[in-house]
Amino acid sequence: MRIFYGLILGSILVTIFLISYKRNKDLFSPLCIYSLFQFLRYVPNIIWADEEHWFFLDDYNTLKLLCMELVVIFSVVVGYLFYNGRFSSTEKQFGVIKTKKSISLTIIMVIFLIGLSSRFYVIYQSGGILYILNNIGTAYLGLSSSGLGYVIALSSLMIISMLMLLDKIKTEKQYNNDRKKLAYNLIFYKIILLIMITSYALSYLLFSSRSPVMEMVMILAFGFNYLYKKFKLRYLLKPRYFGFVILIFGIIVLMPIIRNSGDNKLSSEALVEMLGDNFTEIFDEFSNVGRDAYVYDHFNLNNFWFGKTYLNLVKAPIPSSLYPNKPPMDDGIYLNQLLHGYDVSPNQGRTELLFNYSIPFSTQGAMYANFGILGVIISGLFMGMLYARFYKIVKDTKIVFTIIIYQLIIYQLELTTLSIMQTIIPLIIVLVVYRTVSGVRIIRYKKMDGRKKDIGRLGINE
Hints:
mainly alpha; three-stranded antiparallel β-sheet; two-stranded antiparallel ribbon; 65% helix; globular
């Protein structure tokens, strides 16, 4: 029966993906991205996983999971279509007022170096490069309790600078008519961009952290898609793109193997063998099946949290060094205790919890744990409308600031305490830095008699 459940869910998500792609001609449109990641997170392991996070899966709990997923998908799609039908109008659009043609390379490099310095500081505080290489597992786990959250957040400056440079390359092509100078500048800028990408990736792979590298690749893909030209579905069949996808999947599999090997060095033969054994388990890295099935099985009217986890956001800005026993910003730490069989309050301090690592909630899991199925429906409608709004903004403006916001919303944002903070902090950093160095203003206007009438500001000056 579980094969049947997976096929039902998979066919619905594939249909949504194809319809959205046909309508928008954009692989990065909200419903394309949403259906792709929902497929990866649920379909494979609904079909073949026997247990996840110590919770055993059977026909009954996966049927309940399927029903809830259908509710979630329906809510998101309805919210998306409702926004487009009710609020999105061809007469009302978002525009950009620029005071500068492009940002200077010096400013871009200063921003990048500030972000890179934050990574050097994290490495230094973690014991240095040699210590980390010899104690990868320990160094990785130590980051969660290091109290360096705000320093780590500054690394988003590196991403901002990469997109700024990508935008500068685009501007150079548009306005530089000297072919010889243009060719030289483009080569120079691309070399710098490659150095930026490599530096960012190595600073995270040193700790065996794969998620930031994947997110960097994704946001650069978003930038290329909206600053240059849209990716086409057929591009995935080209060898270079297909090989790149395999490389990313290899990183997803390799990093946990290195980390979970403890602090022991792996021989090349053992590493190859473990890669072969674990490559088929790649979908476990995406899966939310076990954690969501557990949440739907565990929570009911007698033990819903009724929003208590979100109260922890009030204390989240306080540094851990000043408040060692503050409630974890990551509500997934509480889920981890529950999955291990320990009953916890959603506001307990970190030092009172047995396990200090996270098994993150999904949006629907967090909302069900707090408010039941009503929370799941409302959150789905809200997320669908949010996707539609920011998709319109990025299509109308196509600037670095809105591309980053859109990527944060469509990929990173979940209605969990951890994800909310992880979205808000880089958003504020991007807002302050990009507005300061670019002088860009985003406006909303309405076409009247062929003219544009300003009807408000968005975000920066609203």
